[in-house]
Inverse folding.
């Protein structure tokens, strides 16, 4: 039994930590895990993705197209960019808040994300949307966007862990003064 | 033994420590950097760790330690090996006493490099044994073997993972500290007949190297990580030869199918000849799936000739596999399907997605390099100029609208290229831009060259007090070492003055007007002069409150957009501050003609 997970968005949104927490939960359950992500010339503002695989007989962290059980999309255009990795009938949780690239600003482009969300509504069977940035603001910190997205993904019952499993991994990773806020973000509905 | 979830580079460092590592040094470079950083983090006090000033310095330091019986490791990216190739080629003849592993990370794609060179080919050129792991677990296991072979054969060895191994993570089995090998160096023993290279010694060493490599071909034919997997169907007369992460892609592509005979090569040099011949016998056709150079393909083609085997070898040279860029599970699946005569399932038909915004790498919001480039651009408006760039974050100054990098070649090249252009076009005002870490690594000789040969140029040192591109490593100008010491900073001003640059001015580029005037004044002087733009990397300092654009004062001239800052976006046709990115650096406020941008949040 394998689970393939793809986390994608824009550099600075906390994508790598999201993937790390799922991996930590897998380690705690003695489930073999592999992951791969963009590193290098993609600091803040670049397209960032993380491939994550759980289960037996893993060969490499990068899975082929049409193989992801779930995509955690932190940004609408980035979710569309990686949609071909989602398997037929797969799930997606989506942050509908669009991040305009600097190139769009220069060329006077009009990217706002709505067209991406509409496209995903048409082409993803199990799509769960949230304005993650508004949710994070409500909770008091833009930094908890990744926990909101991760909590939402866990509740889709595709990733074989509970919120408590992730919470345990999170408490081992983040500074104690942020643990309580992150716990609330994981449970945000 | 226990399980840990480790990045490939961390696994390499941990494996080296388990193999009794005494000293590790290197120069940062994606995708190799985390090897040394992990070693430093896991230093129990018995390990010496340093970021050397460049790869050549590191190679020589590592050699000295291995002469003294230490187990040493030197880390770099593939282009770093070019810098270190002078000591490497001679060291191959001299050899070592303790185990010495030269960790060189290759970058198929390339994802963040200038070239797609293959260190396996460098291994053949330098005649040094080479290890090529195919997974994170194999990287952990094989680095320990690499030390053992190095010590046994008194030769440095190359260890070359690629980006997907370096930056891939996996849960792997690692040793407990009680299981670690402990190496106690005996110290350097004087013997000029061994350690001083002379033509007569090199002649004898060459004979010994050739004999050793023939022996290693046999030894490596027995090495467990070089392996043949029999075909699922014994009648199948096709085979696949592969290596590195492509071996993992191949396994992925063959899942649930009748796999042909497989050959996996973990030591591309010396090539395990006996094993390869055993693989070839009885086959009609072999597909070689490789990244970068067709190393295995050439070896197998050669062996077919040598052993009179009638096997058709296919791969990059026969255009069955693409000859540039990295492989993927998809590309390997296609290559194998074409070779085996299989049909792949058709991709499900989906609607055409809307046009996607591109997100090319840009200088961060608040990056002081943006201010430096903008200041030079404004100061030189209307003049015939050339701006020679270099390797680092500031290469991104080439992007529109800044458009301030006319050339970029390799570390330290800009300072010399600008001199060459100036010799042919004396009416051009010549600039070279170099970062602080790159300055120390390889631009000082260029500065000396300019002074000695009476060049007419301005050297701009972009000093953000870190090695930013590779993830903020310290360097000689930062006053910190990887052993945790706080030391005297090496002064860039003093170095430049010391080599004879008469005008050396230091200015904060975020004080825009002052910066522009400094450039105008200094560039007008004859000879070699330098400006140091000093302001810390925006990622490392606590940001100020975001700036704010007053909608009434803004006349929508879009001048602020000419900075190319990701912190300024266009919403409904008008510039707006993206508050999640803006660091409040104040550059746009200084650029705005109508004083519509104010600092410190909404007011």
């Amino acid at each position: 039994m394998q689970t393939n997970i793809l986390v994608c968005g824009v550099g600075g949104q906390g994508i790598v930590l999201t993937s790390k927490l799922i991996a930590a939960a897998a380690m705690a359950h003695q489930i073999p895990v592999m992951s791969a992500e963009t590193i290098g010339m993609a600091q803040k503002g670049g397209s960032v993705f993380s491939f994550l695989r759980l289960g037996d007989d893993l060969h490499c962290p990068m899975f082929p197209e049409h193989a992801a059980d779930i995509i955690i999309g932190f940004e609408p255009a980035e979710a569309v960019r990686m949609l071909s990795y989602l398997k037929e009938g797969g799930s997606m949780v989506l942050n509908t808040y669009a991040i305009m690239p600097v190139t769009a600003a220069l060329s006077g482009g009009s990217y706002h994300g709505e067209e991406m969300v509409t496209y995903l509504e048409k082409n993803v069977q199990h799509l769960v949307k949230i304005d993650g940035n508004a949710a994070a603001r409500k909770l008091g910190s833009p930094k908890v966007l990744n926990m909101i997205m991760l909590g939402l993904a866990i509740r889709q019952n595709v990733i074989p862990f509970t919120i408590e499993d992730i919470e345990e991994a999170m408490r081992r990773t983040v500074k104690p003064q942020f643990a309580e806020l992150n716990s609330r973000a994981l449970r945000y509905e | 033994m226990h399980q840990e979830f480790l990045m490939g580079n961390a696994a390499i460092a941990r494996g080296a420590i388990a193999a009794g590592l005494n000293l590790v040094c290197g120069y940062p470079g994606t995708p190799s950097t985390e090897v040394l950083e992990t070693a430093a983090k896991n230093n129990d006090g018995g390990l010496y760790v340093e970021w050397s000033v460049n790869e050549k310095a590191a190679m020589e330091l590592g050699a000295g330690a291995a002469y003294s019986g230490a187990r040493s490791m030197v880390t770099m990216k593939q282009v770093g090996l070019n810098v270190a190739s002078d000591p490497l080629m001679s060291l191959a003849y001299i050899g070592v006493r303790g185990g010495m592993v030269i960790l060189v990370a290759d970058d198929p794609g390339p994802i963040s490099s200038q070239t797609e060179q293959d260190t396996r080919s460098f291994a053949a050129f330098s005649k040094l044994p080479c290890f090529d792991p195919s997974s994170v677990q194999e990287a952990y296991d094989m680095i320990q073997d690499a030390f053992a072979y190095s010590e046994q054969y008194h030769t440095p060895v190359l260890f070359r993972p690629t980006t997907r191994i370096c930056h891939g993570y996996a849960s792997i089995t690692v040793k407990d500290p009680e299981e670690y090998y402990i190496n106690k160096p005996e110290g350097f023993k004087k013997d000029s007949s061994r350690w001083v290279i002379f033509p007569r010694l090199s002649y004898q060493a060459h004979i010994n190297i050739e004999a050793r490599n023939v022996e290693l071909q046999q030894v490596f034919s027995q090495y467990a990580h070089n392996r043949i997997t029999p075909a699922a169907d014994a009648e199948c007369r096709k085979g696949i030869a592969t290596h590195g992460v492509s071996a993992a892609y191949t396994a992925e592509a063959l899942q649930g199918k009748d796999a042909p005979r497989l050959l996996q090569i973990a030591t591309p040099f010396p090539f395990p000849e006996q094993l390869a011949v055993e693989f070839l016998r009885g086959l009609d056709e072999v597909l070689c799936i490789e990244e970068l150079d067709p190393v295995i393909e050439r070896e197998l083609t050669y062996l077919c000739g040598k052993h009179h085997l009638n096997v058709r070898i296919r791969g990059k040279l026969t255009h069955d596999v693409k000859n540039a860029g990295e492989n993927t599970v998809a590309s390997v699946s296609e290559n194998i399907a074409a070779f085996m005569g299989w049909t792949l399932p058709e991709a499900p038909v989906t609607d055409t997605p809307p046009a996607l915004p591109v997100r090319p790498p840009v200088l961060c919001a608040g990056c002081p390099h943006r201010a430096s480039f903008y200041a030079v651009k404004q100061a030189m408006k209307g003049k015939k100029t050339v701006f020679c760039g270099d390797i680092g974050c500031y290469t991104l100054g080439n992007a529109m609208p800044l458009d301030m990098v006319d050339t970029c070649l390799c570390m330290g090249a800009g300072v010399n290229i600008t001199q060459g252009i100036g010799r042919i076009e004396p009416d051009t005002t010549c600039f070279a831009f170099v970062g602080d870490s790159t300055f120390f690594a390889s631009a000082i000789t260029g500065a000396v060259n300019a002074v000695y040969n009476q060049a007419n140029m301005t050297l701009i040192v972009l000093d953000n007090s870190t090695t930013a591109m590779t993830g903020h490593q310290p360097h000689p100008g930062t006053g910190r070492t990887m052993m945790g010491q706080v030391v005297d900073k090496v002064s860039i001003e003093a170095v430049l003055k010391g080599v004879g640059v008469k005008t050396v001015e230091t200015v904060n580029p975020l004080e825009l007007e002052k910066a522009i005037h400094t450039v105008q004044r200094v560039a007008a002087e004859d000879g070699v002069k330098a400006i140091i733009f000093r302001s810390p990397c925006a990622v490392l300092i606590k940001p100020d409150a975001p700036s704010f654009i007053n909608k009434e004062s803004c006349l929508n001239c879009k001048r602020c957009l000419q900075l190319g800052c990701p912190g300024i976006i266009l919403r409904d046709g008008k510039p707006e501050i993206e508050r999640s990115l803006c660091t409040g650096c104040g550059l746009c406020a200084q650029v705005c003609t109508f004083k519509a941008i104010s600092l410190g949040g909404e007011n």
Remarks:
- Chain A has a mean pLDDT of 91.
